[in-house]
Design goal:
It contains 15 helices and 22 strands. By secondary structure, it is of the alpha/beta class. The structure holds 1-O-alpha-D-glucopyranosyl-D-fructose and calcium ion. Pfam families: Alpha-amylase.
Length: 552
């Protein structure tokens, strides 16, 4: 396979720039901070970095509310800083993937300002609608019952324009109108702008929200969503409704396939395949359609099943079921992917338990396809503690609930990276934008780099094993040998095989490998017990090998 196939086996590292590394002491991570740490990422074995948004923005939703898709937020640096980052990344062989946020802009965007004033050409850039007249009053109701994912009506009245606009997220994130061909073209131009700067593709934000049912088919009105019937919700909650009119519409898929074609033009232009990964929390069928059809190529839809379906209580058989589900549903010839965390979800140490961090990293890195690691998961960071007073995430602030806000808050998984034991974990010399998690003296990179039994060393070792031909191109076999032992085997004829063994129990296990028909065969083995890597090396497997529950 040539280098144009890099994306099929990429190890992608998600950077949340605000919390990665601050280079100038203002307490906010920035581009020069990322550039400083590229050597670290290279040594770790990362193939590509995906940068959460770095564009000009008022930061209501920390960059997912974009003012100008072609400008860098001053707190993150300048376009020159970005170009320096690109040059250094290229020198080290690290690809750069940008976050594309097509569903909405920020309300400070020039497009939105022009649309409010109905400037010619911009009238229909956003989803504008009249309110519904109420009997005996001059007031109007929002055009439909739609709810924002961040709670309450998804419609906001604008008195200058005299109409409501749609916002699936915060009020400052107006939804773009993809029924406008001009909007369609704008978003292609944005992609070309970054591709021409040499980026290797996009992670596409909130793709499921791109289209809403066309009022032309509903008597000129936006149709109400049916109620979900979930008794644990109230009309302000997103979960109160079934989103049949506002998520994963047919038109959305067509746009994704068109973007794939656009990216494919760059194979010839730049000699590189450009990756597209789409973000949608959706049912499996809706998800798989993003991959494409028999005649059209699509994206790699993020596989969030490890985040949603694997918990502290999952046994080996359940984990195998979760893995198999994606592999069997995925259309043939497409590329799998495994997401072990992101800036929206609780960290692995909290979700699956600190003693399963190595196991989850190993599973994701040994399975076929793309593996995506969120910054800090390679050292087993935990969610930080963020009080109501310190809370910044709009999803938490919008609860208006100083007691239960934490259930919705994404701040704990966005606290600064733990580089070392020094002030602010070596992230910044200034007051940090979110508090640093209190356990950084114990959990930090500097300590783990010198400790061969650490999460980091285990991760780095696996990233290297991932480069072996058997893991890149070999067959996969996943087995639950019992409720507590999971085995992932990768074999390629004529190449050294790889065997990953997970012991989920608190007790030592003797794993009988005769059933795997690997004997006698020289194979690289990595095994993980409760919290350590305890069988290491290349073994000639005879029959049984011990997998300890705890580090010696
Ligand atoms: O997230 C899309 C999304 O569906 C979120 O509402 C997600 O379900 C929620 O955050 C889970 O807690 C993307 C981005 O990843 C997120 O950070 C942005 O806030 C959102 O889009 C709007 O751009
Ligand atoms: Ca800074």
């Amino acid at each position: 396979a040539s280098d144009t196939e890099w994306w099929k086996t990429a190890l992608i590292y998600q950077i949340y720039p605000r919390s990665f590394k601050d280079s100038n002491g203002d307490g906010i991570g920035d581009l020069n901070g990322i550039t400083e740490k590229l050597v670290y990422l290279n040594q770790t074995g990362v193939d590509a970095i995906w940068l959460s948004p770095i564009y000009l923005s008022p930061m209501y939703d920390f960059g997912y509310d974009i003012t100008d898709y072609r400008k860098i937020a001053p707190e993150y640096g300048t376009m020159d800083d970005f170009k320096t980052l690109m040059t250094e990344a290229r020198r080290l062989g690290i690809r750069v993937i940008m976050d594309l946020v097509p569903n909405h802009t920020g309300n400070e965007s020039e497009w939105f300002q022009k649309s409010i004033r109905r400037e010619p050409g911009y009238e229909d850039y956003y989803i504008w609608a009249d309110g519904i007249k109420t009997e005996g009053s001059n007031d109007t109701k929002p055009p439909s019952n739609w709810v924002s994912t961040f709670r309450k009506s998804a419609w906001e009245y604008n008195s200058v324009r005299g109409q409501y606009y749609l916002h699936k997220f915060v009020i400052g994130q107006p939804d773009l109108n993809y029924r406008s061909t001009r909007v369609q073209q704008e978003m292609k131009d944005v992609q070309k702008f970054w591709l021409d700067l040499g980026v290797s593709g996009f992670r596409v934000d909130a793709i499921n929200h791109l289209y809403e049912s066309n009022p032309a088919n509903f008597g000129g009105r936006y149709p109400d969503e049916p109620l979900s019937g979930n008794p644990n919700t109230n009309p302000d909650d997103y979960e109160y409704l079934n989103h049949i009119h506002t998520e994963n519409l047919n038109e959305t898929y067509e746009v994704v396939y068109d973007w794939r074609d656009l990216l494919d033009e760059y194979i010839e232009l730049q000699g590189e395949y450009k990756i597209m990964m789409t973000e949608a929390y959706a049912d499996l069928d809706s998800m798989m359609r993003y991959y494409g059809t028999s005649t059209r190529n699509g994206s790699i839809p993020f596989n969030f099943s490890f985040l949603g379906d694997i918990t502290k209580d999952s046994d080996a058989r359940h984990i195998k079921t979760v893995i198999d589900k994606w592999m069997t549903y995925m259309p043939s010839g497409r590329t799998a992917n495994w997401v072990n965390g992101n800036h929206d979800q609780s960290r692995m140490a909290n979700r699956q338990g600190v003693d399963r961090v190595d196991a989850m990293n190993m599973i994701a890195l040994l399975l076929p396809g793309v593996a995506i690691t969120y910054q800090g998961e390679e050292i087993g960071m935990t969610d930080g503690e963020v009080s109501w007073e310190e809370t910044k995430d709009p999803q938490a602030c919008n609860t208006d609930d100083p007691v239960n806000y934490w259930k919705k808050s994404r701040d704990p998984n966005r606290t600064p990276f733990h580089w070392d034991n020094s002030t602010n974990a070596g992230f910044s010399t200034g007051k940090t934008w979110l508090p640093v998690a209190s356990n950084y003296h114990k959990v930090n990179l500097a300590e783990q780099i010198n400790n061969t039994k650490s999460h980091y060393q285990f991760y780095k070792d696996l990233a290297a094993i991932r480069k072996m031909a058997a893991v890149k191109y070999g067959d996969v076999d996943t087995r639950a040998l019992s409720e507590t032992v999971l085995v992932v085997t990768r074999l390629l004829p004529g190449e050294q095989g790889v065997l990953g063994i997970v012991n989920l129990s608190d007790e030592d296990q003797y794993v009988d490998l005769t059933s795997l028909r690997l004997i006698p065969r020289v194979i690289k083995v990595r095994a993980v017990g409760a919290n350590c890597d305890n069988v290491k090396g290349t073994l000639l497997i005879k029959n049984k090998i011990p997998v300890n529950a705890h580090c010696a």
